[in-house]
């Protein structure tokens, strides 16, 4: 629950390929997902339909109210809102060069969006549930590939590539740098932080990766003043979601694609991210590793990276089941506004096909599709 206008030519395609190749720049379902979708469309048709809005991130503050940010050829950055749990979306009013890589809505009215603006990291704020947004502000040294999680309307943490962490405790008026442990400082140029979940004002869990592919999880329990860390060598972690300050879930892909059945795909923690235990997942899901996750109360949802496979759990992520929604699509980010209602950003297989949102009202057992324009 707590918690991603250009012409697409050869140069942009090369940039997209470079971003996809560099896993250290894979930020939670933001610009990298967007670029991959644009690249797939370009490869098939040679152009991207101008009206298509490609979602990169989603945040649901309540069961029915969610905000999606993303881009299109007509919009450098844009946003859409829903007040009916994903059944329909309305286009938002955004400033020029809107940063649309990641979004977090801690309340029904307050949202923050971060990402690239004029090739710099920036943040924008909404005070009306994502319908309109304030002009962005640049955060010095922040990468355009930034992600955000807000525990309250006043407290948020932003992370990005180059191991950068900044926080606000006054609703975005002021932002302060927070230092990671010394070993992270030594990896500033090679450590990418691409997922974050803040279940409380003082507690945040951050997932990153080194250039060699090792996954690292950082945890703070004092608002970024001090951190603990843990390295994962069997799984390339992709996302983290904490339902509260006790229960958190990590999802990822096998470290070696040649050995898909020998690496854990999901980890559970029941002591505030102090220790993690691997979870057994359904055999079918192992061919389609979970790309993202969202947990509320005892329920978790984790869409697979490829194919129409969505994992869901109703017992704090201990046991998982597989749902197969209608249609074929590539899922992206997920956000649950309650234990029963969740929204997933996605892109249809085959072109020309508009992007879509996939939503559930029963905790992941059944799903419906909504086109996003």
Q: Write down the overall mean pLDDT.
A: 81
Structural class by sheet pairing and helices: mainly beta
Separation of the first and last Cα atoms = 24 Å
**Computed CA radius of gyration, to the nearest angstrom:** 18 Å
Name the overall outline.
Answer: globular
Percent strand equals 35-45%
* Number of β-strand runs: 28
| Count of helical regions | 3
Low-confidence stretches: 1-48
Arrangement of strands in the largest sheet: 1-2-3-4
Percent of residues in helices comes to under 10%
Q: Give the biggest beta sheet.
A: 4 strands, antiparallel
Brief sketch in words of this structure:
By secondary structure, the protein is mostly beta strands. It has helices spanning 10-21, 31-45, 182-185, and strands at residues 54-60, 66-71, 78-82, 90-91, 102-104, 111-117, 120-126, 137-138, 146-150, 156-160, 164-168, 176-177, 192-197, 204-209, 215-220, 228-232, 235-242, 248-254, 266-269, 277-279, 294-296, 299-303, 310-313, 321-323, 329-336, 342-348, 355-360, 368-371.
């Amino acid at each position: 629950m707590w918690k991603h206008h250009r012409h697409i030519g050869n140069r942009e395609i090369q940039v997209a390929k470079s971003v996809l190749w560099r896993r250290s720049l894979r930020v939670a379902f933001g610009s990298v997902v967007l670029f991959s979708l644009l690249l797939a469309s370009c490869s098939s048709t040679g152009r991207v339909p101008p009206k298509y809005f490609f979602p990169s991130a989603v945040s649901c503050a309540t069961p029915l109210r969610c905000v999606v940010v993303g881009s299109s050829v007509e919009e450098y950055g844009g946003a859409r809102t829903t007040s009916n749990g994903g059944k329909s979306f309305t286009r938002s009013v955004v400033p020029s060069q809107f940063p649309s890589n990641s979004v977090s809505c801690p309340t029904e009215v307050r949202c923050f969006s971060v990402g690239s603006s004029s090739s710099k990291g920036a943040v924008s704020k909404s005070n009306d549930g994502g319908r309109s947004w304030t002009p962005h502000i640049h955060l010095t040294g922040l990468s355009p590939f930034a992600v955000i999680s807000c525990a309250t309307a006043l407290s948020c943490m932003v992370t990005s590539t180059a191991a950068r962490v900044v926080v606000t405790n006054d609703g975005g008026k002021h932002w302060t740098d927070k230092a990671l442990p010394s070993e992270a400082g030594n990896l500033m140029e090679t450590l990418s932080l691409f997922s974050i979940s803040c279940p409380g004002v003082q507690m945040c869990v951050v997932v990153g990766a080194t250039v060699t592919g090792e996954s690292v999880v950082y945890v703070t329990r004092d608002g970024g003043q001090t951190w603990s860390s843990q390295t994962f060598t069997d799984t390339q972690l992709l996302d983290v979601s904490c339902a509260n300050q006790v229960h958190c879930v990590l999802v990822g892909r096998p470290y070696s694609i040649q050995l898909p059945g020998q690496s854990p795909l999901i980890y559970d923690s029941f002591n505030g991210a102090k220790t993690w235990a691997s979870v057994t997942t359904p055999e079918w899901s192992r061919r389609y590793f979970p790309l993202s996750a969202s947990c509320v109360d005892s329920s978790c949802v984790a869409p697979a990276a490829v194919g129409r496979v969505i994992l869901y759990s109703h017992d704090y992520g201990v046991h998982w089941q597989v749902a197969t929604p209608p249609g074929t699509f590539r899922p992206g980010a997920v956000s649950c506004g309650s234990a029963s209602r969740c929204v997933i950003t996605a892109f249809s297989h085959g072109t020309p096909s508009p992007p879509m949102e996939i939503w559930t009202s029963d905790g992941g057992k059944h799903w419906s599709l909504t086109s996003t324009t």
